[in-house]
Amino acid sequence: MPWIQLKINATGETAEELGDAIMETGAVSVTFQDTHDTPVFEPLPGETRLWGDTDVIGLFDAEADMNDVIAQLSVHPLLASGFHHKIEQLEDKDWEREWMENFHPMKFGNRLWICPSWRDIPDPDAVNVLLDPGLAFGTGTHPTTSLCLQWLDGLDLVGKTVIDFGCGSGILAIAALKLGAAKAIGIDIDPQAIQASRDNAERNGVSDRLSLYLPADQPEGLKADVVVANILAGPLRELAPLIGVLPITGGVLGLSGILASQASSVCAAYTDRFALDPVVEKEEWCRITGTCL
């Protein structure tokens, strides 16, 4: 169905209150967008991190009376002295199909292709992972996932056990299995990620070699030859005592989801247990790898 979008310029101090006011006028959703496209990373639990100059965007049914909406907002204390706004008609699209059309097969390293499950495989002789991420994170399009896939492609995984900590869509665990790993273990806090990983493993014919766990259900004493964790810098630092004991002695660790500016603090959390390699960067993101001492 078609929609109407109302955009009001605000600040970090006023945005949440204005968002509530827009919802009270009948908006079906409200989002916040940085006016200057400044990224914000790692909000604290329960925190809505806003920018200095913030657009508050309300989405309305196409039948909504926007004159009435503006009239209601104009008496709000934060807006009574006048406010800048923009009203736009949004084209009615099949947004899922729109996304699918722009997700193409991608090559990582020398052997590995990540292929959307609804597209043709470009190289039948390559190592192909058929992927449908569902509601979970991980398609290979983000630099952090790309860095992890390239790293896995460069390892000798034949006969190895791999742990994918924060498995999302299962893309890293499944890629490891397709690259020769004997067994993979995926761990994620999101049940939707566990389901997406399970579906993708079945799609790739490796479900019999992939074990999936929510943290509360994972077995004690898990160990692996290779451990990869593509999450965020904060959790990687906080969970270092948990992640750091997963590789066997001589096993390898790969971490990503880290901005280059955060690399030193993440490295510091792992230097006591790992001989770390030089940090690899891609588009302001980085990968940290090392060998367990």
From TrEMBL:
GO MF: protein-lysine N-methyltransferase activity
Gene Ontology biological-process annotations: methylation
Substrates-to-products reaction catalysed: L-lysyl-[protein] + 3 S-adenosyl-L-methionine = N(6),N(6),N(6)-trimethyl-L-lysyl-[protein] + 3 S-adenosyl-L-homocysteine + 3 H(+)
Pfam entry (one): PrmA
Subcellular location: Cytoplasm
Swiss-Prot/TrEMBL keywords: Cytoplasm, Methyltransferase, Ribonucleoprotein, Ribosomal protein, S-adenosyl-L-methionine, Transferase
Primary localization class, coarse: cytoplasm
Gene Ontology CC terms, in alphabetical order: cytosol; ribosome
Domain of life per record: Bacteria
Family label: Belongs to the methyltransferase superfamily. PrmA family.
HAMAP family per UniProt: Methyltr_PrmA (MF_00735)
PANTHER family the record matches: ELECTRON TRANSFER FLAVOPROTEIN BETA SUBUNIT LYSINE METHYLTRANSFERASE (PTHR43648)
The protein's name in its UniProt record: Ribosomal protein L11 methyltransferase
Organism in which the protein naturally occurs: Mangrovibacter phragmitis
Originating gene: prmA
